[in-house]
Structures are given as structure tokens and as C-alpha cells.
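User: Good morning. I'm curious how protoporphyrin IX containing FE would be positioned relative to this chain. Could you predict the structure with it bound?
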Amino acid sequence: PFPLYARMRRETPVARSRHPSMEGPIWVVCRYQAAVDFLKDPRFAKSKQKLPKESQRRYFRVSSLKHLDQHMLSADPPMHTRLRSLVAQAFTLRRVEALRPRITAIASQLLDQLQPQQQVDLLDAFAFPLPITVIAELLGVPVEDQDRFREWTTTFLTPPKDGDLAPLRRMAQEFQTYLQDFLARRRADPQDDLASAMIAAEEQGDRLTPEELMSMVFLLLVAGHETTVNLIGNGVWALLQHPGQLERLRAEPALLDSAVEEMLRYCGPVRHSTSRFTTEDTEFHGQHIPAGEMLVAGLLSANRDGDVFPEPERFDIGRQPNRHIAFGSGIHFCLGAPLALLEAQVSFRLLLERLPRLRFAVDPATLRWRDSLLIHGLERLPVTF
Ligand code: HEM
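Assistant: Good morning! Here's the predicted structure, ligand included:
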């Protein structure tokens, strides 16, 4: 997509576009400064309740996600503030740092299970199980069910084939029933986990409704793994595509943190932000945007804007400064950023130490990117080591 993004940025800061899964237009904010301004601008609303009925029909043909949608990423202040502050404590740098030994143990164990000389899909064998195990343990949901979470999440994030919404509806129903059963078990028998802590908050009074609680677990489970999977996968892809940078990192392990930041900029796992809407006719960076239309920030595009990043197409693990917006900006800035960074740093340290001969098992030109408006990730990543 990068040549297309470059063309869009040359032509306009905010491009009007379409997607076959939606009736209405989608405005893509593709230049860096405009994207930051957009993500911080309270005129762009998240809450669907603020939309005229006609816009709701044009953009949301699936209503089955309703009970899973009462979370912070779909809310504006003051509801957003209340929901986010309920869990923010669990994701601070200090709390996350305490997970380092456990994350290292999970990652090491996954690498122990790899068979040398054999071709493996690094997404299946490592990049997926690591973050899902971490977030499942944190929340208290059974780690054994990870394959179901993966299937559900993939269905949510892939545009429906031929407009057929039936699989999406079925998955939403299954996921919802699963979460209801899980939360019922935790209510009856609380444990030392984040779900039980949130149930306690819910029971304290009017702070969290049952739908909000279920949506919170849903959001953390989905946002807590799908993105990190692809940060690890895309990062390995970028290093193998740039052997000089890989050698540099092996020679200078102190560059690890900055290398992860450059992976986020150069090939971040989130293609566009989630959507926002105009609630009235709005002027923004020279465009007139009618009321009730959808906008997204083009994060991959903004992160290659030459006005901000010198030589934006170059993958440079020592890049300084590197003010990418792969985690978004403004009040919805990624809550899990410290956790994602820690998981990636631990992963790349171990991958470099333990797999000194890591390489692609297929011609990298044959690798395919997933079809998703939100996620930027490979379908498969076959490697040998
Ligand atoms: C929000 C990216 C990992 C939880 C966001 C947003 C982005 C993002 C771009 C803002 C979306 C928008 O404004 O529309 C990423 C990336 C990750 C990652 C690139 C990994 C490399 C995680 C993890 C968690 C998490 C591990 C686990 C807890 C969240 C939550 C929000 C969010 C709860 C919503 C925050 C709010 O609405 O206030 N993330 N994320 N993310 N992320 Fe992440």
C-alpha cells in the first residue's frame, strides 16, 4: 500500500475514499500532522449514539456486536474517562514491568518447543501464542481457549466475503456467550486476576454495567493480542528484509528498544485508527466534511511522512528522533503500549540470542498481507533457523 499512501499524501492531507463493505465514504487522514490533529480533535466523535440514523445505517450493517461494543474505544468523554480509569492502573509501566519474568518464561518455553532445521510458521509457533498467553493470564480467561479467540478475532477483523454477514454474526454470538459464561464463573468464584477485580468494581455500584464489563474483557482480549502478534511478525519480516540492519542489531544489542520503535514506524501492526464521525458539517485541513461521515487516521501513511521523518522509506533501527503514531495519539492513545513494547523487546532479544540463523523459508516476495482495514500483518511467516 505504501506507494498509494505516498500519492495520497502528495495530493491531500485528507483523502476521500470508499470500501466495498460500507455504503458511505471513508475519509483517510493520511499526512502526519493532520493525523495527530484529527486524533486530538474532540469534534470527531466515537460514540455511535451521536450519529444520525441514516449514517448508522450506511456504516453499520452488523448490529450483533452491540453488547461487545460498550468499551472505551467506542466511547467519548465522560464515559471514556470513566471506563479507561477503571483499568488504567493495571497497565502502567511499573505494573507491566513486574510481568517481565513471566513474559520471558513464556517466550523461552515457546522457543524451546521449536524444532531446529524444520520450517515453521513463526506467527503460529511464537508471535501468536506469546501475547495471547500474557493477556489471557492477566485477565484470567483460560489460555487453552486461545485458538478460539484467534478464530473469532480474525473473523471480526476481516471484511465479510461477498457482503455475507452470517459468519460474523455467528462468531459475535459465540464470543458473547463464551464471555458471559466466563464472567459468571468468576462472579461465583473470584480469583486474583483482572476480570475478578473488574467484577468487584461492577458490584460496588454504578461504575460498570454488565455489558460494559463484558465489552471491556472483549476489548482487552482482542486489542491485547492481535496487534502485538503482528508487531513481532512484521518486525521479523523487516529485519530479514534488511540483513544489514539485522547484523547491526546483533552487534549492538543496546539498539533493541530503538529497533522496536522503528518497526512500529516502518511496518506497524495497525493500518488505520478505528473510526470517528463528524456530528455536524466540519472544516478540517482544507476539506469540507459533511455531518455523519466516517474518518480514520492513516497510521502507516502518517508514519512515512517525509515532512516529519527524513528518508521515510528507509528502515533504520537507530532512527532518532522517532515520533511515530503507531499507538495513536490523544485520549485513546494505546492503553497497552507499555505491555506491547515489553513483549516485543523480550521477544526480539530472545529470537536474536536463540535463533542466530533465522531466515525466510520461502521467497519473501511470495508472502501475502492480510486483507483488513485495521490490521497490517502477514498471512503466514514461514522461517527456518
Ligand atoms: C488503543 C495500537 C497493543 C489495548 C490503541 C490505538 C492504537 C493501538 C493505534 C488507538 C486506536 C484509535 O485511536 O482509534 C496498538 C499497537 C499495539 C497495541 C500497535 C501493539 C504493538 C495493545 C495491547 C493492549 C492494548 C497489548 C492490551 C491491553 C488497547 C486499548 C485501547 C488501545 C484498551 C483503547 C484505548 C482507549 O480507547 O482509550 N492501540 N495497540 N493495545 N489499545 Fe492498543
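The CA atoms of residues 5 and 11 lie 10 Å apart. The chain has one domain: 2-384.
Let me know if you'd like a different ligand tried.
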